[in-house]
Structure formats: C-alpha cells, structure tokens
Amino acid sequence: MVAALLVFHHIPKTGGTTIRKLLQPNLGEISFLHLNEQKELERIARNQKAVTEFTTTDWARIRIVFGHAVHQNTGIDCGRQRLVCSVLRDPVAWLISKYNQEMRKYHRDGVQPLAFEKWYRIAPLSRSLVDWLVRYYLSAPNLLGRPQSEKRKIALNAVQKLDFVVDLRDLDTCMPSLLTFLCMPIATPTRANAAGLDYLNHFSESGGCWQAVVDRLESDLRFYEDASPLLVDNAKKFRHPTSLLAVQARHRVSHSSDLN
C-alpha cells in the first residue's frame, strides 16, 4: 500500500513549530518538506524546482509537506492519496499570541514595542483567523473584500473538508494518533499551548485591552463557535491510534467509487 501524503497547513501560533520539531527529526528516510515563502525562495535560488513544478516522481519521496505556504491544492498532483491537516485556536488567544510574538522582535531589536491598538491597525492579516484561512490556505486573496459573514462560511467550509483538524488545547491528546499513523514513536506531551497560556495571563478579562480584542474579533469568534462541534468531535476521534487509518480507508473507497 502506498503511504498517503500528509499535507499540514501551519496556521501561525497554533503549535505548528512544536509539531515540526517533533516530526522532522524523527522521520528517518521519510522525507519532510517544510514549505513557506522563504524556503521556496531559497529552493529557487539553489536552482531547485519550485514545489509548483513537482512531478509525481518528485512527490514520491515526500511523506509530509508542512508549513505556512501549504494550501488546499498542495500536492494535489502527487499521484497518491492526500490527508490534509491543520490546528485551530481560540481567536482571542491566537491574536494575543501573535501580538506578543511581534513585540518580542521589537525587544530583541532594542525598539520600543507598539501599543496593542497601534499594532492591530497595521497588522490586518495577523488579526483575523478567518482572513488567514481565506488568504493563505484557500489562496483566495480576491475574497478578502467580501462581507464577513460570507468569509466565515467560506472558511468554515474549508475547515470541514480537512481530514485532521483539532483545537490547539487538544493537540497533546491527539498527537499519538498522528504519530502512530506515521509509524513514529509516541512522544511525551508537547505542551504546545503553554506559551499562549502565559500570554493570556498578561491580559485581564476585566481590562480594556481584552474587551477591545473581543469586540474586534466578533466574526472570528463566530467562526470558532461554528467550528467547535467539529473540533470537539475530532478531539474524541483522533485520540484513537486507528482513526487516521480509518480516514485513509474511507478515502480509498471514495476514490474507487469515483473511478467506477
């Protein structure tokens, strides 16, 4: 049986770096392709093929393609089954974590950090989970100007089509299923969300900054609420090591039906 290609869209600040550090060193002969804009520029600078030019033969050595630049059609011409994955996060925690990440860069450069309000105004794609999914996962920047309600439906439809999607807070309990599917050793809990929880401690729920975040994330919070039943259901399913194997089997049956 040909192993499926695992296509993992890394939304920033959803534990993806922890996942990459867990998967990449343990893959052995199974190839791991880290795909983001910088990596792709480096690949082209070395006169290597761009991922968009990969043939079935090129994809044959890849087991996992992972990164911010992974989108819904990445690897669609790989010549074998794909399992598409991602992790979501509470929008408030996500936005606060993004802000803290950016301000750490200011500190490292010896620059006075921006107040949250100012940062929020100049970081449009960093402030909306829905916009991120539409712009990067769906590769549809032309849809960013659509009404919020329409973008929410588009993003939710995309998430519902993923083969493996869980909430960041359930990642530790669901990772064994993913690792078993990849025939990799079960790791200790990742604590991927520990830093985000620390960030939340800096924002009092009774404070003005917290309320400003919540007010501006109305659309994202509705999206997260609509996606929550799916995330809860997946958190239960993906605690079992055989769950992704079952998904793969359903894909094979579906693909066979399409051919008949």
Structure summarized in a few sentences:
The protein is an alpha/beta fold and 260 residues long. 51% of the residues lie in helices and 10% in strands.
Secondary-structure blueprint:
Elements: E1 5-9, H1 16-23, E2 31-34, H2 37-45, H3 56-60, E3 62-67, E4 82-88, H4 91-108, H5 116-122, H6 129-137, H7 148-160, E5 164-167, H8 171-181, H9 194-200, H10 208-216, H11 218-237, H12 243-259
Parallel strand pairs: 1-3, 1-4, 2-3, 4-5
Helix pairs in contact: 4-9, 6-7, 7-11
Provide structural commentary.
The chain is of the alpha/beta class. It has one domain (5-259): Rossmann fold, CATH 3.40.50. 51% of the residues lie in helices and 10% in strands. The protein contains twelve helices and five strands. The protein has helices at residues 16-23, 37-45, 56-60, 91-108, 116-122, 129-137, 148-160, 171-181, 194-200, 208-216, 218-237, 243-259; strands spanning 5-9, 31-34, 62-67, 82-88, 164-167. It has a five-stranded parallel sheet. Helix 4 crosses helix 9. The two termini are 20 Å apart. The model is unreliable at 192-199 and 255-260 (pLDDT under 50).
